[in-house]
Amino acid sequence: MTKKLLVFAAVLLLGSLTLNAQQQKGGFTGPGLKAISVKEAKGLKDDTPVLLQGKILRSLGNEKYLFSDNSETITIEIDDKLWGDLSVSENDKVEISGEVDKERFSKVEIEVNGIRKL
Q1: CA angle (17, 22, 28) in 5-degree steps
Q2: How does strand 108-117 pair with strand 73-77?
Q3: Position 68 in a domain
Q4: Nearest-5° Cα angle at 73, 84 to 109
Q5: Could you tell me if 101 and 42 are in contact, meaning their C-beta atoms sit under 8 angstroms apart?
Q6: Domains in the chain, number
Q7: Structural domain harbouring 83
Q8: Which of 42, 44, 49, 85 has its CA 20 to 30 A from that of 36?
Q9: Residue 97, Cα to own-chain centre: how many angstroms?
Q10: What is the pLDDT of residue 63?
Q11: d(Cα 78, Cα 101) in Å, to the nearest integer?
Q12: Is 31 helix (H, G, I), strand (E, B) or coil?
């Protein structure tokens, strides 16, 4: 009888943990970043979070791409893992989130944390 009770208790515990894990989806849903222009992003400090909308014009190799939003162009870096199943051409409008990455000699890039097709 005790063995059955232990098995029953274990099943109940696992079931409640699974249900709890399923209920804990999502995160902060308040106001987020507002999309800004590439021109504005270039004037921000290193590591500042940004949200940009525009087009990826071409690959520059080594996970770097040329991005434009009609105000200016900027180099963005997108880790291969971020692409997932997403396919984008130079005609597709995308939204990228990331951080300003300023190099020593005033070279500014965006290190992309997320990308989605609009």
Answers
A1: 120
A2: parallel
A3: yes
A4: 65
A5: no
A6: 1
A7: 38-117
A8: 85
A9: 5
A10: 96
A11: 13
A12: coil
